[in-house]
Design goal:
Blueprint (H helix, E strand, L loop, with lengths): L2 E5 L25 H11 L3 E9 L5 E9 L3 E6 L5 E5 L3 E6 L4 E6 L4 H6 L9 E4 L6 E7 L8 E8 L7 E4 L3
Parallel strand pairs: 1-2
Antiparallel strand pairs: 1-10, 2-3, 3-4, 4-5, 5-6, 6-7, 8-9, 9-10, 10-11
Length: about 170
């Protein structure tokens, strides 16, 4: 198992800074080779089970187990005592709050979670390399700055020459 840090729609995030430059007037920045490697590693995953930690903007942390099956299915099963379940059918993310008997749905297309669910997605569109202390670790933060309410996913990869893209999705704690 490994860990994926997640901040989801339901908990929201502070407003992300806007990206400078007018659309169409500034060429797209070159994609980092490390981002390309992360994309290759993610595209090679067809099923996955991982522990996750979700942090809201107030610093409250919830944990649970994330299960992914391509194409498009994902499930966030929270720790015992948390009356939430989040599932996706590939088109929408559904949050079920058993405590208040409420169901909410959001489209996942063009969201950071879409990058994890769809192996054809280009993580480079939303991904940003994060500083790390080891050259064997690659950390990618995925967020849509135009839609901060979609949250952030942080994925940690370890260099492994035999893995797709030379990286393996992991957690270093």
């Amino acid at each position: 198992r490994f860990l994926v840090a997640v901040a989801l729609i339901a908990l929201g995030l502070p407003q992300a800074p806007a990206v400078a430059g007018a659309e169409g007037t500034t060429p797209a920045p070159a994609v980092s080779p490390q981002i390309e490697q992360a994309v290759a590693a993610l595209r090679a995953i067809s099923t996955l089970q991982a522990d996750f930690v979700q942090t809201d903007r107030n610093g409250q942390r919830l944990s649970g187990v994330l299960t992914l099956q391509r194409p498009g299915k994902i499930r966030f099963q929270y720790q015992p005592g948390v009356p939430l379940l989040i599932v996706s059918d590939g088109a929408a993310l559904t949050l079920i709050d058993y405590e208040v008997r409420q169901v909410q749905r959001w489209p996942i297309k063009n969201s950071p979670l879409g990058a994890l669910l769809d192996p054809r997605r280009d993580v480079a569109k939303y991904g940003k390399l994060m500083p790390v202390s080891s050259p064997n670790i690659v950390s990618v933060e995925v967020r849509d700055r135009a839609h901060p309410e979609f949250g952030v996913i942080t994925m940690v990869f370890v260099r492994k020459p035999s893995a797709p893209g030379g990286l393996e999705l992991r957690s270093e704690e």
